[in-house]
Specification:
Layout (H helix, E strand, L loop, with lengths): L1 E6 L2 E3 L5 E9 L5 E8 L6 E7 L4 E3 L7 E6 L4 E6 L8 E10 L4 E5 L3 E5 L2
Parallel strand pairs: 2-11
Antiparallel strand pairs: 1-3, 3-8, 4-5, 4-9, 5-6, 7-8, 9-10, 9-11
Length: about 120
């Protein structure tokens, strides 16, 4: 089992910055992707940014150049630095961990953290 605990959400003005953190505990996998998705009211959950165990990063076009995903392997934590925030970034942000075992895939989600961008 894997547990994901997010922190760092909140209210910020347009143009401001926030940093989200997601700490993973539990089972260890060699091959995985860890990252962030978000869901705004009335919309589907969408990918924001992910980082594979290889270090490869993937970003949604809407956040490229503004958001940066990173990780601290010693702390089993992934971060999302969000700069130049816009009102359309308002959503619940979910941490996700996808792990690839020898015979199946595993998909874990955090509880979500609210990010509100408003003046």
């Amino acid at each position: 089992q894997v547990q994901l605990v997010e922190s760092g959400g909140g209210l910020v003005q347009p143009g401001g910055s926030l940093r989200l953190s997601c700490e993973k505990t539990g089972s260890i996998f060699t091959i995985y992707t860890m990252g962030w998705y978000r869901q705004a009211p009335g919309k589907q959950r969408e990918l924001v940014a992910t980082m594979a165990s290889t270090g490869t990063r993937n970003y949604a076009d809407s956040v490229k150049g503004r958001f940066t995903i990173s990780r601290d392997n010693a702390k089993n934590t992934v971060y999302l630095q969000m700069n130049s925030l816009k009102p359309e970034d308002t959503a619940v942000y979910y941490c996700n961990y996808k792990a690839y075992g020898s015979i199946r895939e595993y998909d874990y989600w955090g509880q979500g953290t609210q990010v509100t961008v408003s003046s």
